[in-house]
Amino acid sequence: MQIGGQLVAIEVSGSLRAAEARDKVTVSLNLSANLSDLQSKITPILRAQLNQDNRCGDRVSLEEAQLVPRPPASLLMAKIHYEKWGCAKVLGREVVKKLVGGNGVIQVGLTPRIDDSESVRLEAEVTSIEADGELREVLRSTPFGSVVREKIQRSIASAVEKSAAPPVSLGALQGFVRIRTAQFSQDRDLHLFLDLAADGQVSAEQAQSLLQGLKAAASVN
User: Fold this and answer.
1) Taking 80 as the threshold, does the pLDDT of residue 110 lie above it?
2) Cα dist. 76→57, 61, 159, 165 in Å?
3) Is the pLDDT of residue 30 over 80?
4) On the CB side of 171, how many CA atoms lie within 13 Å of its CA?
5) What is the pTM of this model?
6) Is residue 98 part of a domain?
7) How far apart are CA 94 and CA 179, in angstroms?
8) Does some domain include residue 82?
9) CB distance 99 to 85 below 8 Å
10) In what order do the strands lie in the sheet with 177-186?
């Protein structure tokens, strides 16, 4: 899938358990999305959103970004270099002067949330801002600081929400199969995963349709 101009591979694995009782089938579905490729490309994805180079105004460059597991949540750390330049007329000539400059690190906590048991959204919260002198106040209290924080939240939330989309549409199963849990996990190499668990009661035909959809998604991945 395309995220922030980058082609990101999301590998999804899962399991389906079904138990038939009378005319209904109780199903339990577990899915795990491997987000390690998103982790490896998070810097260019965010760089496309954040970088600015205004002659008279804000100049921003994202130096590095990291997306790390903090199960059941995750943490984004973005290192930025910021400068604010001002332009003024002096004796008929334009003078360009740097007003503020420095380096900063913004940390954003990311937590999956379930909406109406049928979709997953990402809740993003700035947990800390570390910056040089005046830049700290710029990031904490000015409109520019709010814009930077919102762009980080919006871009990373969008990326993870895309990866959280089930590999098969619930379609006719909506209202029957409901998402029970959504959380981040990690492997021993600190690769990030998004795990979803859903269950419900469906007809035998619906269970067969869900199984076929999972097989088709697995063959694509």
Assistant:
1) yes
2) 26, 16, 12, 20
3) yes
4) 10
5) 0.80
6) no
7) 60
8) no
9) yes
10) 11-21, 24-34, 192-202, 177-186
d(CA 179, CA 215): 20
Residue 91 lies in a domain: no
For residue 171, the enclosing domain spans 2-52+64-77+105-220
Q: Domain count of the chain? A: 1
Token couple for 130? 């570390």
- The confidence band for 163, taking pLDDT boundaries of 50, 70 and 90, is low
DSSP secondary structure letters along the chain: -EETTEE---EEEEEEEEEEETTEEEEEEEEEEE-HHHHHTHHHHHHHHH-EE-TTSEEEEEEEEEEEEETTEEEEEEEEEEEEEEEEEETTEEEEEEEEEEEEEEEEEEEEEEETTTEEEEEEEEEEEEE-HHHHHHHHHSHHHHHHHHHHHHHHHHHHHHHHS-SS--GGGBTTEEEEEEEEEE-TT--EEEEEEEEEEE-HHHHHHHHHHHHHHHHH-
Whether 15 maps to a domain, the answer reads yes
